[in-house]
Structures are given as C-alpha cells and as structure tokens.
C-alpha cells in the first residue's frame, strides 16, 4: 500500500472539517492554539514513518497520556491490581464527570475518564516514585525525540483551573481509592497532560500497541494479552461518551485528548496519530475523527 498517497488523500478529505469544532477553552494556554492546524502521521510496525500536514508540530497531548500511564502501570506491575480500583466499562458520561463515582463507591468506570486516570497515576506514583517523570522518559525513549518536555504554562494553567479534577481525586480518596496524597496525584496528572508531542512522536511512541507489546527496540514492554487489553479499553472507552459512535465510524482502538490529538491503533499493522484542535461537544477532534473514518474506509483496516 502507498501509505503516503493514502495520508495525502485523508488530509485532503479532512480539510473541510478543520474549522468545524471549537478549540478547548477551559484553560487559557490551550485556547491560544490556532484552529486551522491539521496533521496526520502513520508509523508502520517496522518503524517506517509517513506524515501529512502539520504532523511534526508539537501539541498538548492531554488525555492521550492516559494510554501511556495505563501501559506503564501494567509494565511495572504485571498484575491485575489496578482492575480492583478502576473498571473497564464505557461511562456514557463526559470525561470529567463525577456522578458515577458515588454509585460505584469511588471506583471509576474506566481508566480513560479523568477519575480513572487519576487512580492510574496514583498507582504509577506508588510503583515508580515519580509518575510524570517516568512517563516523560518513556515517551522520549519510545519516540526517539529527546527534546520532549512538559509545558509548564499548560501544567500551571491546569492547576489554576483544576477544581474539578481535585474534586474527583478528593472524592475517590474519601472512599480509600488513592494511595498517595491528593495534591501529589493531581500534580503528576497535570504534568502528564501537559507533555507536548507531535503526531509523529505520538504515533511512534504508541507503536507497542500495534506490535502486541514490543517496544521500538524490540524488547518487551507488555505481554501480548496486556497490549490486547489496552486496545480493547481504547476501543470501548478511549473517546469518552462518543466511544460507540467512534467504533461505528472508525472501528479502531483510539484515545483522544482535548488538545485535539487522537492516537489510533491498527493492531499488527501500524499506529496513527491525527491532530486538529477543533473539538466536538464530547471533546474529540472533529477533523481528526473524520480523517480516521476516511482512513479505515480507504484501507479497509478497521478491526472489524
Ligand atoms: N487535562 C484535561 C483535564 O483533566 C484532560 C482532559 C482530556 O483531554 N479529555 O480536564
């Protein structure tokens, strides 16, 4: 398959969708991003890299980091402990919702909504002593980009507007579902969200999800069944309360973030990352979803 031709066609198809969404405005640091950007990268399991549009421009990974924190917890623990503290069912509610936590005794529905990611970050903190630095080092190694860094302005802005995430964390702590102090858990969570990466960096760093758990250097990060599980939870929960719609349109495991990025996996073949900052009301990139929809239509490479 001529990947470059496919990406060029997907980018042309997605262009008219680029201005349709709204750029995230819950923090000033994200609001400043131009809505006109669009990029797409594809990394084959053999490491070949292709891209179109703004595919080498860094953006705020935001909730895409939740994929990597879950993978790192599994890689460090290789046990099922995390699943006694977080579920794996779609929530059907917005990513920052509080409501289900009370019904379910402080156990979040899945690791990809904010509440679940806070629990995963807490576990990573216990396992490694420094959750956010562990993630940054891993992403640098896997992407091959030593320049990856936290964006201090974004992290500070998240903290300044972090009442909702703090509330989620305190509420879960009241049920005994956090091991570390709330301020430290939310601080590491904000740092993870603030990491700046391009489509190229993210598609490369997520390659272990397409290679059944093998890292870029061929060593094993996860057992194949662990990589399978992360992909399954991405498919069912990775795009929040639009996961059903996303499976219907795209049919790939995917994780979105309010920076406008979406990381998607074609297991056994490749990883893709799309970026366009305009979001739909569920917090998913409008042009990004359209691009992935068109990609699986052109290639026939959905998991179905
Ligand atoms: N930093 C954002 C938050 O915690 C991440 C949300 C997202 O990308 N969906 O609200």
Automatic annotation (TrEMBL):
The keyword Lyase does not apply. Its EC number is 3.5.1.2. Substrate binds at residues 63, 114, 158, 165, 189, 240, 258. It comes from the Bacteria. The keyword Ribosomal protein does not apply. It is an enzyme of class 3 (hydrolase). InterPro entries: Beta-lactam/transpept-like, Glutaminase. Keywords: Acetylation, Hydrolase. It catalyses: L-glutamine + H2O = L-glutamate + NH4(+). GO terms for molecular function: glutaminase activity. PANTHER family: GLUTAMINASE. Homotetramer. Belongs to the glutaminase family. This is Glutaminase.
């Amino acid at each position: 398959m001529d990947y470059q031709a496919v990406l060029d066609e997907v980018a042309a198809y997605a262009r008219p969708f680029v201005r349709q969404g709204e750029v995230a405005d819950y923090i000033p640091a994200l609001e400043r991003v131009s809505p006109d950007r669009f990029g797409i990268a594809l990394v084959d399991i053999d490491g070949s890299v292709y891209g179109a549009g703004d595919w080498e421009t860094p953006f705020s990974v935001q909730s895409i980091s939740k994929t990597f924190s879950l993978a790192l917890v599994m890689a460090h623990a290789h046990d099922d402990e995390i699943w006694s503290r977080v579920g794996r069912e779609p929530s059907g509610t917005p990513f920052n919702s509080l409501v289900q936590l009370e019904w379910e005794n402080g156990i979040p529905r899945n690791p990809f909504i904010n509440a679940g990611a806070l629990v995963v970050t807490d576990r990573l903190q216990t396992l490694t002593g420094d959750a956010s630095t562990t993630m940054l080092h891993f992403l640098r190694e896997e992407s091959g980009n030593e320049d990856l860094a936290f964006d201090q302005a974004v992290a500070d802005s998240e903290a300044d507007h972090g009442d909702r995430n703090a509330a989620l964390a305190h509420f879960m702590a009241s049920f005994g579902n956090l091991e570390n102090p709330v301020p430290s858990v939310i601080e590491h969570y904000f740092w993870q969200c603030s990491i700046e990466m391009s489509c190229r960096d993210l598609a490369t760093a997520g390659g272990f999800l397409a290679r059944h758990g093998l890292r870029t250097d061929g060593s094993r990060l996860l057992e194949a069944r662990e990589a399978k599980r992360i992909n399954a939870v991405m498919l069912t929960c990775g795009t929040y309360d639009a996961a059903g719609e996303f499976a219907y349109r795209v049919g790939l495991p995917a994780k979105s973030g309010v920076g406008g990025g979406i990381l998607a996996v074609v297991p056994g073949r490749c990883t893709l990352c799309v970026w366009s900052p305009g979001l739909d009301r569920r917090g998913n990139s409008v042009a990004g979803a359209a691009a992935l929809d068109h990609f699986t239509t052109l290639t026939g490479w959905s998991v179905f």
